Amino acid sequence: MFTNLNPISCDVLVIGAGLAGLSAAAEAARAGKKTIVVSKNHPLKSHSAAAAGGINAAMTPEDAVLHCEETITAGCGLCDRQAVEILCNSAADILGKFRKYGTPFRLNENGEPEGRPFGAMSTPRTRFVGDYTGAALMQTAFEQAEKAGVRFEYDVFLTDLIKDGSRIAGACGIRFRSGTAELFSAGAVILATGGAGALFAVNSNGIGSTGDGCAMALRAGLPLKNWELVQFHPTGLYPSGLLISEAARGEGAVLRNKEMEAFMPRYHEKGDLAPRDAVTRAILTEIKCGRGFGRRGDFVLLDCRALSPERLTERLPEICDLTETMLHIHPSTHLIPVLPTAHYFMGGVPTDTEGHVLDAIGFAVPGLFAAGECSWTGVHGANRVGGNSLLEATVFGRRAGKAAAAETVPASPDPNEALRTLNGRLEPPASASEAEETGKIPSPLECRRELKEILSTSCGAVHTTIRHKQGATRLSLLERRFRKYRFRLPPERACNTELKDWLETDNLLLLGAALLTAAEERSESAGAFYREDQIYAGGSLYHTLTEYRKGRFSAERRPL
Amino acid sequence: MIILRIYRRDGHYDVHQLDIKPETKLLTLFEQIRTGIDPTFAFSSGCRHGICGSCAVKVNGKPVLACKTEIGSFRSGVLRIEPLNSESPKIDLLSDFDGFYRSFSSFPDFLEPNGRPTKENFLPEATRCIQCGICYYSCPSVSYDKEFSGPAAALKQDRFLSDPADTITESRLEEAVGEVYRCVKCYRCTEYCPRSLDPEKAIENIRTRCLTRKEETIGTFHTKALFDSIYHYGKINETFTARYLFGFWGSLPLILSGLPFLFKRRVRLRPVKAANLKEIRRLLEMEND
Ligand SMILES: Cc1cc2nc3c(=O)[nH]c(=O)nc-3n(C[C@H](O)[C@H](O)[C@H](O)COP(=O)(O)OP(=O)(O)OC[C@H]3O[C@@H](n4cnc5c(N)ncnc54)[C@H](O)[C@@H]3O)c2cc1C
Ligand code: SF4
Ligand code: SF4
Ligand code: FES
Do A28 and A71 belong to one domain? Predict the structure, then answer.
C-alpha cells in the first residue's frame, strides 16, 4: 500500500501524449498556462505514431462540403452534423500548420499535398507521408509542444480522476520507474488516452491501447456514449490482426477469395473502397460461405500485385516491411492473408464541440475535457471514415486545449482522498471471499487473454443477444477470479510490471462489461454494429449511454 | 531446443529451455513468459511490429528489436538477453532511456520555418526513425563522451539542416561543429539501425556542411591540416599537423608527449616525402573536383 503521494500541480493536465494530447497541450501552453502532459510511455511511442494511411483534408471549400456529406453518409445517420462541419472545415488550416512546421507530406506537381483515395470517399483527399503519416505528424506535434513549453512526464500510469467537490481537479497514478505514487492537481484536466483495441484477441492496436481514460471516466461516475460501436478494419494481417492500411486498397490492391475472385464489386458499388463495415461484412460472409483460404478457411487474400514494385516501396514501405518480417513474403509477388481486425472505437466519453465532457444529463462536467479516440465528438457516427480520426485528434484536441486553458480554476484536491482512491484500487473488494472456489487464479495477462477471447466471440463484428448473455456470464466469472490475484511484488516496487498489467486488465474488464451492456442495448444494426438477430429491419436511430454506478452497469437510449 | 538466459532485476540470469518454433518472435516469447510463468518479468513493447521502437534489447550483445527478431535467427542456440542500455540501473529488460531522449534537446529540435512551405517533395530519413535508441546505446563515442549527442540526434539535426524551409542553418551549424567531430566513424549506428537508416551518413553530411562554412573550427582545421599534410608529404606528418593546428608556440607542450614517440622512431622530426607524391596529389586534386 502507498503511504504518501508526491504532489505536482499545474494549470492544465493532459492525460495522454498521442496526437490529441499533444495538440491540446501545445494549445494550452501557448495560451500561457502551465501545462503538463502525462503519458504511460514516451510521447513518441503513443499509438498515434502507428497510424499509417493518412489524414483527410479537403483543400477547397467545395471539397470540404463533399467531405462533410460523405462522412455523414458513412456514419449511417449517427453523426453530429455540427461537429462534422467543424472537422471538415478546419482540415485545410490544420494541414497548412503541419506543413509549415515541417511535416513532409507527399506533394503533387503543383506543390500541394497529394491525396490518396480512401474508403467511402469520392475524391482522393487523404494526405500522407509514405505510409507512416502518424509518426510524421507525431514528430511535428511533439516538437511544437516542446517548443511551446509543455512539460512532459512520461512513464507515469494514471489510475483515477480526483475531484474537488463536483469539479475534476486532477488525477493520481504511479510513476512506473520509481514506483512512487503521484498526485497531479490541475485547474483543468484533458483526457486523451486513446482507444481500447486491447479488448479483442485480433486487433490492430498497440499493446497500450487499454482504454484507461474511458475506464477512469466510468469510475468517476461519467457515462460512455455509443461504446458498442467498434470498427473492425477489413484487412488485418493474418493471424495477429496487425494493420494492413486501407492505403493498400487506395493504391489499387484488391481482395480475393478462395476462387481468386475479386469479390468486393459483388457487395458494393464502390468495390474494394466501400466503407469499412461493408468490406468487413463482405469478408466475413465469404468466410462463412466457405470461400475463405487456409486449412480452417478463416482468411481471404489481399492482392497488391497490380502495383509496381517501385510504387509499393515508395508509397507503402511499411506494408512491405510488415509482411516481410512477419510472414517472409513480399506483396509484389505474394498475396497477403488478411482477416477483419478490431480497429477503432467510435464511442467514448461524450463531449461537445469545445471538448467539454458531458454527464448523463448532458451538462458539462466542470474541469474535465476530452479529445481523440477516447472521446465521442459525434464525427464518426456509426462508422468512421479512414483518415478522419487523425484529423479529429488534431482539430478537437486543439479546441479542447483552448477551452481548457480558458477555463482553469485553481484547484486543491484532497491528497488523502486521492491516496484512499489509489489504495482502494489495489484492495480486493469485500465480496470476493477467500473460500469461494472459482478455479485457478490467472495472472493479469492470462486474465487479459481470456477476456479478449470472451469479447471476440461474444461481442465481435456480428452481434446476437444470446452471445452477449453468454459473454456477460463468462466475464463475471473471470472477474471473480481476477479479483483474487495476489501480487508477488509490493506495489511500490520500481518498474512494477505486474501491477501495471493488473491495473490495465482491471480497466479492460470494466470496459468489456460496459461494451456488453451497451451492445445489448442497441437492438438494431447501425453502421459498423451489425446484429444478426435483428428484429426490425431498417432500424431506428439513437445513441446509447452506458454508466457504471455502485458496481452495476446500465445502458440507456438517447434520441439524436 | 533453444536456451534463453534472460537478465533479471537482481543481476542473475533466468534460464529457460524451450522447444519452440524458430520463427517465433522474441517479443512473443517474452509475452508468454510474463503471461504464463512470471508476471513480474519486466520488458517494454508497444506496436508489435517494429514501428514504435519500444522493445529494443541486446541478444548476445547485439542490439535488436524484440518484435522483429526471430529466435532462430541466431547462430548460437543459447541466447543471452539483456537490456539495451548496460550502463543505467536495469530492471529485467528495462533500462533507462532518459539520456537518449535528452540527446535530442542538444539542438533546436524543431523547424524554424520561413513561412512558405516548400513546393518540392522532401522526405527526410529522420521521419522514419522510431527513436528505439539502438544506435545511441551501441555508439562507442556516446559511452565515453557524455557531451556527444549521438547518431539519432545527428540524423534529426541533418533533417532540419537539409530542409529548404529552415531558416536557422547558421546557428545549427555552430552547435553542430562541437558535436559531429566526436563521432569516430565506426558505422555501428548504421549497421544496427532496425529501420535501415544511415545516421553515420547524416554525420558525414553535417561535417561537409561545416567545411563549407567560412568560420574555421577545430574540425575543419583538423581536416584541412590532414589534407595539406598529405598534399605536401604524401602522408600524415604529426609535426606538421600539430604546428598547423596549434601554431608553433601552441604545439610546444605537445613535444613532451611526442618525445617517447620520437625515441621509438614513430615520428620523425624532418618530414619524409612519399615516393609517389605526384600520384597522390593527382588523386587529391581529382577528389577535390
Ligand atoms: C494501426 C492503425 C492505423 C491507423 N491509421 C490511421 C490512419 O491512417 N488515419 C487515421 O486518421 N487514423 C488512423 N488510425 C486511428 C488513429 O491512429 C487513432 O485513432 C489516433 O491515433 C488516436 O489518437 P489519440 O491521441 O486519441 O490516442 P493515442 O495516440 O492512442 O494516445 C494515447 C496516449 O495516452 C496515454 N495513456 C493511455 N493510458 C494512460 C494512462 N493510464 N496513464 C497515462 N497515460 C496514458 C498513452 O501513453 C498515449 O500517449 C489508425 C489506428 C491504428 C490502430
Ligand atoms: S559511426 Fe559515429 S555516431 Fe555512429 S556509432 Fe560510430 S561513433 Fe557513434
Ligand atoms: S536512427 Fe535507427 S537505430 Fe537510431 S533511434 Fe532511429 S531507428 Fe533507432
Ligand atoms: S513493439 Fe514497437 S518496435 Fe517492437
Answer: yes
Residues A178-217 pLDDT 10s: 999 999 999 999 999 999 999 999 999 999 999 999 999 9
> Which ligand 4 atom sits closest to the C-alpha of B56?
4
SS (H, E, C) A165-222: CCEEEEEEEEECCCCEEEEEEEEEEEECCCCCHHHCCCECCCCCCCCHHHHHHHHCCC
Q: Is A16 left (phi over 0), alpha (psi -120 to 50) or beta?
A: left
Q: Residue A439: its pLDDT value, please? A: 65
Measure in Å the smallest separation between the Cα of A259 and chain B Cα atoms: 30
- Cα–Cα distance measured from residue A26 to residue A328, given in angstroms and rounded to the nearest whole number: 41
Provide, as residue numbers in chain B, all residues whose Cβ is less than 8 Å from the Cβ of A99: 117
User: In this structure, is residue A425 part of a structural domain?
Assistant: no
Give the containing element (helix H, strand E) for B230.
helix B218-233
Range of the domain at A302: 237-339
From chain B residues 116-135, the ones with a CB under 8 A of any chain A CB are 117-124, 127-128, 130-131
* Residue A267 vs residues A117, A278, A279, A453: alpha-carbon distances, Å: 19, 8, 8, 29
Q: Residue A144 is which amino acid?
A: Q
Residue-wise pLDDT for B244-273, tens only, equals: 767 777 777 777 777 777 787 777 767 778
How many residues can be counted in chain B? 289
Examine the predicted complex and report whether its ipTM is higher than 0.90. yes
Cα–Cα dist A367/A369, whole Å: 7
Q: What is the pLDDT of residue A438?
A: 55
> How far lies A21's CA from each of A26, A126, A173, B116, in Å?
9, 22, 18, 27
Higher-pLDDT residue of A130, A188: A188
What is the amino acid identity at position B163?
D
Cβ-in-10-Å burial (0-12, 13-18, 19+) of B211 comes to: middle
Residue that is last in its domain, among A308, A339, A370: A339
Specify whether A40 is located in the same domain as A182. Answer: yes
| Measured distance CA(A195)–CA(A231) in Å, rounded | 11
Residue B234 Cα, gap to closest chain A Cα (Å): 45
Q: What is the mean pLDDT of residues A403-408?
A: 97
pTM of the model: 0.93
A460: domain CATH number? Answer: 1.20.58.100
Grid coordinates belonging to B178: 562541437
User: Listing from the earlier edge strand, what are the strands of the sheet with A126-127?
Assistant: A55-56, A126-127, A115-116
Count of domains observed in chain A: 3
Q: What single DSSP character describes residue A238?
A: T
User: Dihedral angle at the C-alpha atoms of B22, B28, B29, B35, nearest 10 degrees?
Assistant: -150
